[in-house]
Design goal:
This protein has 356 residues and is an alpha/beta fold. The chain is 42% helix and 19% strand. It is built from 12 helices and 10 strands.
């Protein structure tokens, strides 16, 4: 593949990862003896059973606060935030994470579109709320990264009793514009001329509006042809343009276009901590931070923080053995990010509530 083909492939891989940013790491960290790990099976819908792990600190209150942990996009398994979980367990907080559908021990076919991912997270939250034997259901928080940072606030809107939300690398913006603004930035960074970028973005808007609102088939087909032509007019080869539009047409990508992050964030009444990574190349902090501030302006307990020297997965920038600086570690392993969450979240979960 020539350099232009590689560049175009990267652009649309990046667009697909805009709300995803997969972090594929399975925890092999030894559990403390004071943690009781329970393998759980959660029915999400017919044919989809989610395999998860409920980790319960043995000490402290009988009914404990809990955090539902949501991964980013891609084939995310359970247990991808072991350093964060250890911090929470030390405070007496229960954690639940799960393999995505079709991943690990979970059944069903892997589907990374927003709708099934949100249904599965909703089922995991319902499971937590059913465990009144060990969990104080009025002290449940949700923490998610990237795709999970879109789903977490949405679940909090559906469930006003959620005690707190932590959203890392949370895309923020209006429906459609969030996707198109990121696309505009990536196309320009890849060297496409400004006029061509606007032509492609405009054609993308028309096509995805038609595709995601069940427009007549002829309207969708016409939009697809016009979008392919816009890429070709910008200098791309026909097969590259066809491949790009095929990626945009995939439900896992087109569902990102429908995300109305600001509308959701503005409805969250629980305390919210939104954390961005200064070196994130997947979710732009420059685009998202102003939008998140606007959306959360009426929330009396909302904090937005940008962490330096970390990337999309919140791994720290370290000096490697070879003398190079690189991002390494578990997802959410940057010490300053861990400290921030460990200070903010327990303060909103550790006040006991009356038994119900």
């Amino acid at each position: 593949m020539n350099s232009k083909g590689r560049s175009n492939t990267f652009i649309f891989a990046s667009l697909y990862m805009m709300l995803s940013g997969p972090v594929h790491a399975q925890s092999d960290v030894s559990r403390a003896t004071l943690i009781q790990a329970k393998q759980v099976r959660i029915i999400s819908e017919p044919g989809v059973m989610l395999a998860g792990e409920l980790q319960v600190p043995r000490s402290g209150d009988t009914r404990k606060p809990a955090v539902l942990l949501l991964g980013g996009g891609g084939a995310s398994p359970h247990g991808i935030y072991p350093l964060l979980e250890a911090r929470l367990h030390a405070k007496g907080i229960v954690t639940l994470s799960f393999d995505k559908r079709g991943v690990g021990q979970s059944t069903g076919t892997f589907d990374d579109a927003m709708e099934p991912a949100q249904r599965d997270a909703r089922a995991a939250l319902a499971y937590l709320r059913s465990r009144r034997d060990v969990i104080d259901i009025d002290r449940i928080a949700i923490l998610g990264l990237s795709q999970g940072a879109v789903i977490g606030p949405a679940l909090a809107v559906e469930n006003p009793s959620i005690a707190a939300v932590v959203a890392l690398a949370a895309p923020a913006g209006e429906r459609g514009m969030l996707f198109l603004d990121a696309m505009r930035v990536k196309l320009a960074a890849a060297g496409m001329e400004a006029k061509a970028v606007e032509h492609v973005v405009s054609a993308t808007r028309f096509y995805l509006d038609a595709l995601t609102t069940a427009a007549p088939p002829e309207t969708i087909a016409g939009g697809r042809i016009a979008l392919v032509q816009s890429f070709v007019a910008s200098g791309w080869k026909q097969d590259q343009a066809e491949g790009a539009v095929k990626t945009l047409s995939d439900p896992a990508t087109s569902s990102l276009y429908t995300v109305a992050a600001n509308q959701v964030l503005s409805q969250v009444r629980a305390p919210v901590l939104v954390i961005y990574a200064a070196d994130d190349t997947v979710v732009s902090s420059a685009l998202s931070i102003p939008e998140a501030r606007r959306a959360l302006s009426k929330n009396k307990d909302a904090s937005i923080v940008e962490m330096p020297n970390v990337e999309h997965g919140f791994k720290p920038l370290v000096l490697t053995a070879s003398g190079k600086r690189d991002y390494q570690g578990w997802p959410i392993s940057d010490p300053a990010t861990l400290d921030l969450i460990n200070e903010w979240l327990p303060r909103r979960l550790l006040q006991p509530t009356k038994a119900k």
